[in-house]
Amino acid sequence: MQGGLRKITPLVGAVLAASLLAGCGGSAEGRQPTPTKTCPAEVPAPTAKIAPSTIYLNVVNASSKGGLAAQTSKLLGWRGFKVLEVSNQSVMDDRPAPKAAEIRYGKSGRQIALTVATQVQNPVLVEDDRTDPTVDLVLGDSFALVPVPPPPPSQVKVNVYNTTYRSGLSGEVSKQLEARGFTVLSNGNDPSKSFLPDDVALIRHGERGEPNARRVALQFKGARLVQDGREGTDVDVALGNKYSQLVPEAQATPPPTPKPSRPPGC
Question: Are 185 and 233 in contact (CB under 8 A)?
Answer without folding.
Answer: no
